[in-house]
Design goal:
Layout: E1 3-6, E2 18-21, E3 24-31, E4 34-39, H1 42-45, H2 50-57, H3 66-100, H4 111-120, E5 143-146, H5 153-161, E6 167-172, H6 175-188, E7 194-198, H7 201-222, E8 235-238, H8 248-254, E9 258-266, H9 269-272, H10 278-285, H11 295-312, E10 316-326, E11 329-338, H12 340-343, E12 350-355, E13 363-367, E14 369-375, E15 382-388, E16 406-412, H13 419-428, H14 440-452, H15 468-471, H16 482-489, H17 496-505, E17 510-511, E18 521-522, H18 526-539, H19 553-557, H20 563-582, H21 584-588, E19 622-628, E20 637-648, E21 651-661, H22 666-672, E22 673-674, E23 687-693, H23 702-716, E24 720-722, H24 728-731, E25 736-741, H25 747-757, E26 764-771, H26 773-783, E27 797-802, H27 808-813, H28 828-838, E28 840-843, E29 847-850, E30 856-857, E31 872-873, E32 876-879, E33 882-886, H29 887-895, H30 898-901, H31 906-918, E34 922-929, E35 937-938, E36 943-950, E37 972-978, H32 982-993, E38 1002-1004, E39 1010-1012, E40 1014-1018, E41 1020-1025, E42 1034-1037, E43 1040-1043, E44 1049-1054, E45 1061-1064, H33 1066-1069
Parallel strand pairs: 5-6, 5-8, 6-7, 8-9, 19-22, 23-25, 23-26, 24-25, 26-27, 27-45
Antiparallel strand pairs: 1-2, 2-3, 3-4, 9-11, 10-11, 12-13, 12-16, 14-15, 17-18, 19-20, 20-21, 28-45, 29-32, 29-44, 30-31, 30-43, 33-36, 33-42, 34-35, 34-36, 34-41, 36-37, 37-40, 38-39, 41-44, 42-43
Helix pairs in contact: 2-32, 3-13, 7-8, 13-14, 25-26, 29-31, 31-32
Length: 1070
């Protein structure tokens, strides 16, 4: 075996150390104390940037999961040290007993053996097996199973970072993965500890049960008191792609039943944290999910319920040690022990939830059985009785707001964590080296928050019992979020500190949940929580009661049927509005603009006071400059509004500042000065202005951005918000805009339909859209007229504030605005605010995609069994960004879930790893034609990896898919290439990140034919899919996934008449 280190001379490889083993090149990736070898080709890496090559290696190594792996090593360490501390004395006793049983005759034979030999007249010359164990003890046995190991990274870390581990089994279904595990184990020098096995993880785990049954039979047959050593694992780690529920039964049969540790990851948050698949959730976990802010906390309880109910069938009880909702997945650590007595308490720790998910968000819980403690007959002790529970605990309608309740569960109702276990990890955390545990700081924060979640239950008057821990439940199982409360009553969100203080002042306990920043957990009843909200509205955030309809949750919660209180609220609101209209400038002088501190953001945190020093202004942060004269005969002053963006522990931080300075450099004034509110933001009888906040877009920052940035800016310019219930007359009042906050995936399209169905084109609409590309496309399809009708004369004008994932439309339309030199450029959000106040309307080019009968829109959250929930048949869609088939459409479908969106553009890389391993070749034909469709030209291949119609230049800010496309040029261009492996696909994608250098790439395939990336202009394209499997018949139109029937044709053609206007920089519109 050859092993050498190379230093190539290419742009990327000059900084990359490679290793050659058996004639193949590898790069080394280090995490913790483990090192894995990743396949590498210096030839393919030539002329690439280092970052591009590193991005390519993520196919084999996912750095996002390092937090999961670091945490797991530390958790197993804390668990193992406690377990082995108990086992070592018992092990020492066994060794001492064996020594006592030996006869000290020089030959070391036991007495029983000597008597047998004497009776038979023989003497043994064979050394006893036990004599080999008289040497130094190696300690108790401790084994770990990494059931779905892939490259073996977890197994390698366990073997090297946990000194007490005696054996690690790394299993994977893929033979190539097993070879990689063996290679990596040898590379790390732990091949004696790491045992690589190939096969289905369930079969491997069930084989231990079969072996145990066979050993028990042999034991009974030969009447031996002893028996073979236990073969079950001390720790089993389940980390699948998707649900782990299918492995629960096998794992519980393969784990030690005297306190073995089971580590479980579930990444199917679209099932257990979404209300879209209740039937799937029940099939996997035995319960129905919750809809609401607390869905992830409920998801943890559903998964634990699935584990506990599976274990109970075998007389096994589980104890959750640590249960975390992290990013897009859960990580749960449970201890498993044989205890039929403890299993009896499970029904009394299992609950259903009555959830007011369409009203105020309140909930009530109902346990299935009562575990009731009672005095025994002697009166000197207590015991538990298990009886039927009273039902129900609530009415059909919420007692707070009167809205109907929905049922969720059953789910686990006991504690999610063991405080002692968390403290053990935290106590040892300072000893963990920072260079080994790169996510140490985040682990500490997450564990500290989990430790603080616990709220003590009400005191028990009866004496304590050893079974109290078996019966322990969590009486306050879920958190709530102030933004959810504010949304119900249509008011400004209270800040977290004020809400906490109010609860504590009333004598209640309050803490937070690790699941969501800004969350609150309390033992206060919902009646108290809503009392605090009513006081907040009355004292700090009055609402316009005229816009709150009767029989709505807000009307009931605010008790507006009491006229005196309603008049008081209305008067306060009128006073606030008058102040804002008359003296908005003075109101904002000398203070930070955002008045709202929701989602963990504190006003003034991390902000720089500019004061009167204009030299501190940064050009890339300036939004606009407004010149005004404060008083007669006084010098002019300049309002300079700037936006600074930072990254905090709880996500992006927005710092909006207004500086009042007497002098600003003329270059800044010339570039950013505004005279007045632009005409398209001025409401009146002929124009209505709308602000649409898409809560589900991208990483979910739209609400925060509106509260902390946009709303204060608009208020500072004298614009105030109305609610959607405002009539036409109120919407026509100057200096107003209608605020729309999306409630579900159809909200934007429903809003667009309302625009198209009213006014008969007599009113112009401006829509400020806090969303990504999906929001624009929903508008485009919502306002599109029915077939055969005329396009409405006044096209709605859309101003995009890019809060999506890729934001292709915004980046492509503003590509020419960003500076070409090395000077700092504004962020996308700063640029969008500049365009909002100084931009110009331009027609938005669009295309139409037509589909055959039987085509339907599918949900982008993939089902485990390959089926999707769908009801929406579709014949056509309008688009403005992209139409694709192949790798791109598949990637969008398999990555576009609410949890993946939290990772922004990184979600594509996370899902791409699995797709690149498969490298599916899509069977299809592609035909191009002019507008008349008469000159059809069929491309010379029938197997593709990538087919993408681009109407824009960039799919992300740095991902240039169509370098020839100019902003809003209305030309469709096709990017395509044939079937290639995952490595080549990644190479092409990396070239697109390098300024669109994928166009023109050439290579030679395995058959010696020249292949390359095709790049064609056209007016009409027809893509015919020939795939039999429905999984590979998905096409993507601007993020919407459509499944075609087998042999179905997608036809894409340009549209001559625009349907929307878009606000762009004036240089682009010119």
């Amino acid at each position: 075996m050859a092993k050498e280190t190379n230093n190539g001379a290419s742009a990327a490889t000059t900084e990359i150390e490679t290793i050659t083993r058996d004639g193949q090149e590898f790069t080394e990736v280090k995490e913790g104390l483990a090192r894995i070898l990743v396949p590498f080709s210096a030839k393919d890496a030539a002329n690439k940037k280092l970052n591009d090559v590193e991005e390519q290696q993520k196919v084999f190594y996912n750095p996002i999961q390092q937090f999961n792996r670091d945490l797991t090593v530390l958790a197993i360490k804390a668990y193992g040290q406690e377990v082995l501390a108990k086992r070592r004395p018992a092990n020492a006793d066994k060794v001492a007993k064996r020594k006592r049983e030996k006869l000290d005759t020089g030959n070391g034979r036991p007495k029983k053996q000597e008597k047998l030999e004497s009776a038979n007249g023989t003497a043994s010359t064979t050394e006893p097996a036990d004599s080999k164990r008289d040497g130094p003890s190696h300690g108790p046995r401790f084994t770990i199973l990494d059931a779905l190991s892939a490259t073996g990274l977890r197994a390698l870390r366990y073997a090297q970072e946990l000194p007490f581990v005696t054996s690690v089994t790394a299993n994977d279904l893929s033979p190539s993965a097993v070879e990689a595990i063996k290679r990596n184990a040898e590379h790390n020098g732990v091949e004696s500890k790491v045992n690589a096995t190939s096969g289905d993880a369930r079969a491997h785990m069930y084989s231990l049960l079969t072996q145990e049954v066979a050993d028990d039979g042999a034991k009974n047959k030969h009447h031996k008191k002893g028996g073979p050593k236990p073969t079950k694992y001390d720790v089993i780690d389940l980390d699948p792609y998707g649900t782990a529920a299918t492995f629960f039964d096998a794992a519980l049969n393969a784990i030690r039943d005297d306190g073995g540790l089971l580590c479980v990851t579930c990444t199917d948050s679209g099932v257990w944290a979404s209300h879209g698949y209740p039937e799937k959730t029940f099939a996997l976990y035995g319960g129905v999910p919750v809809k609401g802010f607390h869905s992830h906390e409920a998801g943890l309880r559903l998964i634990i319920h699935g584990l506990a109910s599976t274990a109970a069938r075998y007389g096994l009880a589980i104890e959750p040690l640590l249960s975390l909702s992290i990013d897009y997945y859960t990580r749960i650590f449970v201890k498993v022990r044989k205890s039929p007595a403890q299993v009896k308490f499970l029904a009394g720790k299992t609950m259903v939830v009555y959830n007011c998910d369409q009203g105020c968000g309140a909930w009530e819980t109902q346990f299935l059985v009562r575990n009731k403690k009672a005095p025994n007959k002697s009166g000197k002790g207590v015991f538990y009785k298990h009886g039927l529970a009273m039902a129900p605990t609530t009415d059909r309608f919420c007692k707070e707001c009167g809205t109907k309740m929905h049922l969720a569960g059953p789910m686990y109702g006991g504690p999610l964590h063991s405080n002692e276990f968390i403290k053990k990890i935290l106590d040892d955390l300072p000893n963990a080296p920072d260079d080994v545990y790169g996510t140490k700081q985040r682990i500490e924060g997450m564990l500290q928050t989990a430790l603080e979640e616990f709220i003590p239950p009400p005191e028990d008057d009866l004496q304590s019992s050893k079974e109290d821990e078996f019966a322990a439940v969590e009486p306050y199982p879920f958190f709530f979020h102030p933004t959810g409360l504010a949304r119900v009553v249509h008011c400004i969100c209270p800040d977290e500190d004020s809400f906490r203080g109010a609860l504590r002042h009333l004598g209640y306990q309050v803490t937070r949940s690790h699941c969501k920043p800004g969350s609150l957990k309390t033992n206060a009843p919902w009646s108290v929580i809503w009392h605090i909200m009513r006081e907040w509205v009355r004292q700090k955030a009055p609402v316009n009661v005229e816009n709150i309809k009767e029989n709505t949750p807000a009307y009931t919660l605010l008790r507006l049927n009491k006229k005196g209180e309603a008049k008081k609220d209305e008067s306060a609101r009128d006073e606030m509005t008058e102040d804002a209209e008359c003296d908005s400038v003075d109101k904002l002088e000398g203070r930070n603009m955002p008045a709202n501190k929701s989602d963990g953001i504190t006003a003034g945190a991390g902000q720089i006071e500019i004061g009167n020093d204009p030299s501190l202004l940064k050009r890339e942060e300036v939004v606009f400059i407004y010149k005004y004269t404060p008083k007669p005969n006084r010098s002019d002053l300049y309002d300079v509004v700037t936006l600074r963006e930072d990254t905090g522990e709880q996500g992006p931080l927005f710092t909006l500042l207004q500086a009042n300075v007497p002098d600003v450099s003329q270059s800044l004034v010339d570039e950013f000065k505004i005279e007045e509110i632009p005409e398209y933001l001025q409401s009146g009888s002929s124009r209505h202005v709308h602000v649409v906040v898409s809560t589900g877009s991208g990483t979910g920052l739209a609400v925060k951005f509106y509260n902390l940035v946009l709303q204060p800016i608009l208020e500072g310019r004298g614009l105030r918000a109305l609610y959607p219930s405002a009539d036409v007359a109120r919407r026509s009042v100057p200096n107003t805009y209608t605020l729309h906050i999306t409630q579900n995936a159809d909200s934007v399209r429903d809003f667009a339909r309302n625009l198209g169905s009213t006014d008969q084109g007599s009113v112009q609409h401006t829509v400020v859209l806090l969303s990504g590309d999906g929001g624009v496309i929903e508008l485009l399809n919502g306002i599109a007229p029915a077939e055969g009708s005329d396009v409405q004369p006044n096209l709605p004008l859309v101003a995009i504030l890019p809060l999506g994932t890729g934001n292709a439309l915004f980046h492509s339309s503003h590509k020419s605005v960003y500076p070409k030199t090395g000077s700092p450029e504004p962020s996308s959000l700063v640029q969008s605010l500049r365009t909002l106040f100084t931009g110009k309307a331009a027609p938005l080019p669009s295309f139409k995609a037509e589909f055959p009968p039987g085509s339907h829109i599918v949900n982008t959250e993939k089902s485990e069994n390959g089926l999707e929930s769908w009801t929406n048949l579709v014949s056509h869609l309008h688009g403005a960004v992209v139409a694709s088939y192949g790798f791109h459409s598949q990637l969008v479908w398999e990555s576009d879930t609410p949890e993946y969106r939290k990772h922004g553009a990184k979600r594509f890389g996370m899902a791409a790893q699995e797709l690149l391993k498969e490298s599916h070749a899509y069977n299809a034909t592609v035909e191009l034609a002019g507008k008349d469709g008469s000159r059809l030209h069929k491309l010379d291949r029938d197997r593709y990896a990538y087919i993408l119609v681009a109407a824009v230049s960039n799919l992300e800010k740095t991902f240039t898919i169509s370098p020839s496309t100019k902003p809003l040029d209305g030309i469709l261009r096709l990017v395509h290439f044939g079937a290639v492996n995952g490595e080549k696909t990644m190479e092409i994608m990396m070239a697109a990140y390098d300024g669109g250098k994928h166009v023109g790439m050439k290579w030679t395939d395995e058959d010696g034919r020249e292949e390359g990336v095709g790049y064609d202009e056209f007016d009409v394209i027809k893509v015919t899919t020939l795939e039999e499997d429905a999984r590979w018949r998905k096409v993507c139109i601007d993020g919407t996934i459509v499944e075609l029937p087998q042999g179905g044709v997608m036809t894409v053609k340009t549209e001559d008449t625009p349907r929307l206007q878009i606000l762009v920089d004036r240089s682009v519109a010119a």
